[in-house]
Specification:
Blueprint (H helix, E strand, L loop, with lengths): L23 H9 L7 H11 L4 E4 L6 H15 L12 E4 L3 H14 L7 E4 L5 H10 L3 E4 L1 H9 L10 E4 L2 H6 L3 H8 L9 E6 L4 H10 L4 E4 L10 E7 L5 H12 L4 E5 L2 H13 L4 E4 L5 H12 L5 E5 H4 L9 E4 L6 H8 L9 E7 L7 H8 L5 E2 L69 H5 L31 E4 L3 E4 L1
Parallel strand pairs: 1-6, 1-7, 2-4, 2-5, 3-4, 5-6, 8-13, 8-14, 9-11, 9-12, 10-11, 12-13
Antiparallel strand pairs: 15-16
């Protein structure tokens, strides 16, 4: 499934792929993919890259940039045959910040390069370590993957970069955000010089740091910007609710029931909040799943597939987990938490109303994150329309089971192995251990520093007492006459103010 397939006709230009003088092997893949006319980023970037010029492009996910750099890369490899190369020397390397984006690039590469004869390799953290290693040892022409896993195999001399002819860096701005930039520079410096390879870089924003990276590791890059001044999509209907923290989940449930969306993305600022929200939605008969680095890779791919194909109506995610994914036909975006970076607001709501379609973006401004609102409104150039929160919009909800909110012990401590074959979390290379997207760098509400108490399953196994049997104070350990030396367990959800859920 290629992203450009979901673009409406009026999002395309009058430039056809047939007029680009592509090799027949590529044209056949283009026709089978259903492509005829270029998107704006393809029309601007492809002629430059096909002529052998380096390209630094500004484009959002879902605008067809993947097809642009894949076609340019395949064309270069078909027309520049190497003289002497070992199988363990990839000819092209394509770097993505997240494993989901890497998977999507590989899927598109398989479709567009079906008749080229190139061997495609995909490596990412969280799964398949030995399988991926064997694949690299057998040899690939095009290597697609995430920086941490790629640099891991490189340092083990499974492959080398001496024969790289094409370098692609996708979502360059997220590479900085996720702390991968040192790894990126490490890899780039071990490739042939920039003037001996074709280099392409794409980013949602061509910030100063991204531009600096382009000039440092590319050969006279040509900059392509698609609608650089367009902050938010014209056809996104934006709405803002000023709401208390304990009102956010009831309000979200009400809006989801009212709007009955086919595909809704709910963004939070922390993984704990995402898991809490999904638990409340499920128990109140709203089908929802969480996209996070704590979910096993096979399950993550299943969740994404279900969401893309319409079987899963609600996906709850953090910015890091969802960045770089092209998901077609997203009808609603909910900012359950206002992002703490104004650019993230634009990235979030840009998930809907793509390619000329319409969509809704709903934001909650609570007392914890309302301070981000002035920066967001200044960045987008207008005030967000405010909608009132009426009493009938705050339904009484059935609470999820208490077991949903057990504090997770630290992985890798106390003899508990990591889920992925005992490979502990690496401080630098996020994919290698448990948290490939390194979401912990973006969780502004840090995990609790206090140690977990001794494992006594009896108290945690008890079901939550029904709220009607007593008032609804915060869920905590009962008071004891004598002071305890053990720190209390702060629950993820407490119930206050008339049985309203609170995330805190």
């Amino acid at each position: 499934m290629l992203g450009a397939r979901f673009m409406s006709d009026h999002h395309l230009t009058g430039h056809s792929f047939a007029g680009l003088n592509l090799p027949e092997a590529l044209l056949q893949g283009v026709r089978e993919a259903g492509f005829e006319f270029c998107t704006p980023i393809q029309a601007e970037a492809l002629p430059l890259a096909l002529a052998g010029q380096d390209v630094a492009g500004q484009a959002q996910t879902g605008t067809g940039k993947t097809a642009a750099f894949l076609l340019a890369a395949f064309n270069y490899l078909l027309t520049h045959l190497p003289e002497d190369r070992r199988p363990t020397q990839p000819r092209a390397i394509m770097l993505a910040p997240t494993r989901e984006l890497a998977v999507q690039i590989h899927k598109d590469a398989v479709a567009l390069g079906a008749h080229t004869g190139f061997r495609l390799g995909l490596v990412f953290g969280g799964t398949g370590y030995d399988t991926q290693r064997r694949m690299l040892e057998e040899g690939v022409d095009v290597l697609i993957g995430t920086p941490g896993r790629i640099i891991d195999y490189f340092k083990q001399h499974v492959f080398d970069l001496e024969a790289v002819q094409v370098m692609v860096l996708d979502e360059a701005d997220r590479m900085f955000d996720l702390g991968f930039i040192k790894d990126i520079r490490f890899l780039l410096r071990r490739m042939p010089p920039p003037d001996q390879r074709l280099n392409m870089l794409f980013s949602a924003t061509l910030s100063y740091r991204v531009t600096e990276l382009a000039y440092e590791h590319m050969n006279n890059p040509q900059f392509v910007r698609i609608e650089p001044d367009k902050r938010t999509a014209d056809k996104v209907t934006q709405a803002l609710y000023h709401t208390a923290i304990e009102e956010k989940i009831p309000l979200l449930v009400h809006l989801l029931r009212q709007k009955d969306p086919t595909r809704s993305l709910v963004f939070t600022n922390t993984k704990d909040a995402a898991e809490t929200i999904a638990a409340w939605l499920k128990v109140n008969e709203l089908n929802a799943e969480v996209l996070s680095g704590d979910v096993p890779q096979t399950q993550r791919l299943r969740i994404l597939q279900d969401f893309m194909e319409g079987r899963l109506p609600v996906l709850v995610a953090t910015d890091v987990a969802a960045r770089g994914l092209h998901i077609p036909d997203v009808s609603h975006v909910f900012n359950f938490d206002l992002p703490q970076n104004a650019e993230d607001y634009v990235h979030r709501i840009g998930r809907t109303a793509r390619a000329g379609a319409s969509g809704d973006a709903v934001s909650f401004a609570c007392e914890r994150y309302v301070f981000s609102l002035p920066e967001i409104e200044e960045y987008i150039g207008h005030k967000l329309p405010i909608h009132p929160v009426l009493p009938e919009m705050l339904p009484e909800l059935k609470p999820p089971a208490r077991r949903e909110y057990r504090p997770r012990p630290e992985r890798g401590r106390g003899g508990r192995p990591d889920r992925h074959g005992g490979r502990g979390r690496d401080a630098r290379h996020g994919e290698r251990g448990r948290r490939p997207e390194r979401e912990h760098r973006h969780e502004h509400e840090a995990r609790r520093p206090e140690p977990s108490p001794a494992r006594t399953p009896e108290p945690e196994a008890r079901p939550m007492r029904p709220p009607e049997s007593r008032p609804s104070p915060p869920v905590s350990a009962p008071a004891k006459p004598a002071a305890s030396t053990k720190p209390p367990i702060k629950p993820l959800v407490r119930r206050t103010g008339g049985d309203k859920p609170v995330i805190g």
